[in-house]
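Why do we bother with holo predictions? Because pocket geometry can differ from the apo form. Keep that in mind while you read this record for zinc ion.
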Amino acid sequence: MITGSDEAIAVFIQRLETELPSPGQITQLSVIDVALECFDDFQIRASSDGEKTTTILPDLAPCPACLAELFDPGDRRYRYPFINCTHCGPRYSIIQVLPYDRPNTTMQRFVMCADCQREYNNPTDRRFHAQPNACPRCGPSLAFWDRAGNCLAEHHDALQMVIDGLKSGKILAIKGIGGFHLCCDGTNFNAVQTLRNRKYRPAKPLAVMYPNCDQIKQDCKLSISELNLLKSAAAPIVLLRQKKSLSLAPNIAPANPEIGIMLPSTPLHYLLLDLFKKPLVATSGNLAGEPICIDNQEALTRLNQIADGFLVHDRPIVCEVDDSVVRIVQEKPLFLRRSRGYAPLPITLSESTSKSLLAVGGYFKNTVAIIKNNQAYVSQHIGDLDSQKSYQAFQETIEHLSNLYDFKPDTIICDLHPDYLSHQYANQQNLPVELVQHHYAHVLAVMAENQLPCPILGVAWDGTGYGLDGTIWGGEFLRITDQTWQRVAHVRPFPLIGNQQAIQDPRRIALALLWETFGEQVPDYFINQFQSLNLPLLKQLWQRQTSPLTSSVGRLFDGISALLNLVQIVSFEGQAAIAVEAQVIDQNNYSTYPYDLEMIDNKTIIDWRPMILVIAMELSTKTRTIVSISSQFHHTLINILINIAQQKNLDNIVLSGGCFQNRYLLDQAIVQLRQAGLKPIWPTQFPPNDGGLCLGQLLAKIYPRKYQI
Ligand code: ZN
Ligand code: ZN
Ligand code: FE
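The structure, written out:
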């Protein structure tokens, strides 16, 4: 309540909106006149019971004021790795239950000293009611452990031991804000290789933390939007284009023109990088397929064969919060992973519900979501649900979100795929279960971010998703009206020879594309290229027509990747498709390959065989470079988008699915759809990949539509 002249009140309201200190956000602002009352003091009272609706903030990087104190020798928190204030520091990763008061956080074990308490009680102090408030005298502290768990050093000496270890090429596990990182010297080829070998991670790019923006600029191209994103309070990993003069070891992101870069996201990391002064590999502290470690003892056991030493601290972490990964496309963020710095901020949906819905996502890059009224809370990235450990993290995340928001689901929404652990979880809860088709959920997730008038054309291009007709979908065009959704076009299905084996070995997909195009007479060029495979056996499998069929654009990328001989065996999801994208150089060549559109059963089938015919000719006659074939393949896909939109007479085009993580594809699709007078809509707050599925699943239930054949 404020009192004053009309003018002063108007200025106050205006300043409230324009000068709101970070990380504050106004979700709703309404002004009402009330009878005059006089007050002579101001208090923040203890939280009382009631509906738990407060928004929980994500964990935020140190604010400028805290950073200044961190490096000020006169400050009482000089070089204290756990400095924070009301504007910054840990939140989501330390809150056990609401309300957000100190006894409900993992800071409860630390009793504030008199100085800290004074700050905490003083309304004019930056640390007034800062729940994680701490100082070297009363707060958490560091320790360096060897592999056996012996403490070798504490406080600043522990940091120094880390620096010495990194300089001598050691791999160290470092406990951050939402879990452990595995770290090594980013300029040391051997150290990076050791980390790769021990983590069984041969090719997937590793993220690197830089001491400052100037050093990033020396190694990478950096736009203003990318710079702002790096420096934001969320401090995500931003994928940047490498310069030729890169100082990093070449095995950090092999065969990839981009590299995942972040700035320090905690005071501890600022101190580390201040001492180390070089780029530091900081990859998730986990074993392949498992969630990151958050507990000291657990890290000691699980990372024992990877890390040479452990930098730990005694502030417990409630739940795994991995680093977020973002790309800039068209000056806007494109999330590849939405986690630290963003989760669990809610999104306001245009539809409200009185139901308590829990959506459990898919399989890859799993996230879960709950809804209260019209606020959807999407969890942090949990990971692929393919291990007992990640399934456990999945269950704990549901529990954690439910505890925080006093939430009990009355319905669970999951993917159609019966083999997904998330689907099986839904069936085991003794609650009504709603199934939502994968690609429909992809499109709805983007619609949740944007208020769109129907009808729209939803494009869902990804690697895999359970289709309504028993085939594997992934190259889908959905017409969505206010009442219905309909599959109006899709890529011509092709067989995945050996199913899962075709996903690991994209040469099987390339062969399927060739056989489907040429029949049995495949050009010799490819017979030679694929001779290490058992071709007679694979051909038999193809002829028998027992392999599952897919209409997936992601798998089409895989097949092209193998035709171009870029990737033979895949060691991480998306590797083959990324290799095709990596070949593309922005050149003003918009030519496209031929393809056919055929109407079957009221659906347009996109026949890619004319394209494969030409690509095969170009490769076997060596008349085109891989770079120009890759670009032309991208432009063909974009041409298909425009063609189908025009054929179906729809203007609003929603782009969704993992394929749109591809920067060139998304960027060019936006540009060319606009040039054709169409309106592209793409996700800027949630990932286009399966990390956004749960949001779409919620919307499918809140606003039901009928599937139209
Ligand atoms: Zn601060
Ligand atoms: Zn203190
Ligand atoms: Fe998907």
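The domain at 461-684 is CATH 3.30.420.40 (Nucleotidyltransferase; domain 5).
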